[in-house]
């Protein structure tokens, strides 16, 4: 994505259920940025059993430094869960008419992730009555979290 005409990169870690775990914004998409992001995510959530990435070479170099090369999976459609997690974020970004500063993007990405994880109810997995019950309870829980 571009901020003031300069490209910036949004790094995201998504778990097997589609919940966003970690996000980070950098100006570069190189080995050091990948290494910094992977270390940050692993420090918070522990070592993963499998890391699915796209074919960017900096992922492989960073995984080699960490020692997780055998856990990395690269494939054509393997990272669809991560790519699909970008869609609601992009939709909201367009509505906001882009970002002006990197710090604003980082704040928005982390806030959007926590709210989206809380209100995304996997409609296709739940019966309609359960979905409606959870949908009605989510905003109330969010208000209680913000009040404390």
Automatic annotation (TrEMBL):
InterPro entries: DDE_dom (IPR032874), IS_Transposase (IPR052183). Pfam families: DDE_Tnp_IS240. Transmembrane segments: none annotated. It comes from the Bacteria. Residues 1-119 form the DDE domain. This is DDE domain-containing protein. It comes from Henriciella pelagia. The lineage of its organism: Bacteria, Pseudomonadati, Pseudomonadota, Alphaproteobacteria, Hyphomonadales.
């Amino acid at each position: 994505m571009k901020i003031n005409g300069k490209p910036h990169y949004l790094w995201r870690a998504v778990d097997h259920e589609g919940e966003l775990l970690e996000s980070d914004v950098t100006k570069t998409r190189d080995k050091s940025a990948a290494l910094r992001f992977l270390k940050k995510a692993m420090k918070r959530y522990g070592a993963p059993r499998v890391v699915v990435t796209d074919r960017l070479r900096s992922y492989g170099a960073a995984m080699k430094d960490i020692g997780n090369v055998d856990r990395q999976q690269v494939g054509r459609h393997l990272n669809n869960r991560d790519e699909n997690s970008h869609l609601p974020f992009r939709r909201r970004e367009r509505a906001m008419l882009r970002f002006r500063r990197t710090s604003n993007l980082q704040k928005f990405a982390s806030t959007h992730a926590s709210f989206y994880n809380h209100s995304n109810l996997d409609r296709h997995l739940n019966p309609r009555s359960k979905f409606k019950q959870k949908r009605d309870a989510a905003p109330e829980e969010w208000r209680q979290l913000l009040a404390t």
